[in-house]
Amino acid sequence: MAIEVIKPGLATTVQDAGRVGYYNVGIPLSGALDQYSFRAANLLVGNDENAAVLECSLLGPELRFLDDAIIAVTGSTMTPKLDGTLAATGEAIAVRAGAVVSFDFMRAGARAYIAVAGGIDVPVVLGSRSTYGLGAFGGFLGRKFAAGDVLKTGPAPAGARAGRRLPAELAMPLPKEVELRVMPGLYYHRLTEASAARFFEDTWTVAPEADRIGYRYRNGRPLEFCPRQQPFGAGSDPSNIVDAGYPYGSIQVPGGVEPIILHRDAVSGGGYAMIGTVISADMDRIAQMQPNYKARFVKVDLDTALAARADRQQRLDQLRAALR
Amino acid sequence: MPQVEIQCPLPGTFYRKPSPDTPAFKNDGDSVAIGEVIGLVEVMKQFSEVQSEIAGRIVRFVVGNEAPVEPGQVLALVETA
Hints:
Strand order of the largest sheet of chain B: 1-8-6-3
CATH class of chain B: Mainly Beta
Shape of chain B: globular
Mean pLDDT of chain B: 95
Structural class of chain A: alpha+beta
Number of strands of chain B: 8
Helix content of chain B: under 10%
Oligomer: heterodimer
CATH class of the largest domain in chain A: Mainly Beta
Radius of gyration of chain A: 20 Å
Number of domains of chain A: 2
Number of strands of chain A: 20
């Protein structure tokens, strides 16, 4: 079972649930940025929910299927076309051998997931099939796709069938204005009180540089740090600290100007003060933000973050039950 | 003569020139062939070419240089023969 890449799209990669357990040695999580939609795509085609899929950012690929296949497209609004004829998103669809699958523009959202029954068959590296582009390993030869690549897929599972549909109420919401819940810390105290308040008041716009490594935001008022003599080992800018580990989801603001949220391909440490961390339940929302979408940061405490995590888990359970 | 829209395939920042100190790829009134580049979109630290999928004459650009664009947004109107 094979798929030929005719046009690669902007940045199409193989991703799965991620590479957990190596962040301490500088190897990030990687994996699908929107884990919810990734799982939905797999469940639709009857795969294990952690099977490897194609993640498409902002612009879809054009693919030729060399064998009959069952596929599903979830996440952003990116309508598939089978030999030029529009097909459904959020539904398992049958693709005939020889068919060319292309995609309409990404009308809403930023990341689409294409699951193929049987999963994308690439070697497992450190427990995951996910691509880590900066490290040039994992996924398909450690990189995004190029024209002419041929991908192998595994044998389709017994439960694969066309027609299984994602109920509308269980699709990933794709708003152009998003609230992101943030727990302040570890260096929140380095901001002046007035500046910290402004960070949560302002509306921030996704910058065109935003990618799997970090999501950069602009158009809020610059942040002000409390004056201090920089400690030995820290850079001279007030946004610098002595190097520390960066949590996934942490927010750094180089020069106090543009906040960057570290996402699944981020470096694991460095010398910028982290003023807070986006709660894990909201990381999928970031994945679906196109450049120029807007975010507001909402300050929450640990209890709220844990309740949101439980809610997300419950929603995943609903998804599993609906697509069983 | 029928007018056809050239739509932006992806979001980002639209550029009408290959670099700041060179002329625009195309100007209002220029003819355009299938596959010809009419501009660039910068996003995720990459520049992607926007190619015309139609042949004709560019009536006018609707989006200015360095404007933010979204998928499906009309970039230019082309008059087909």
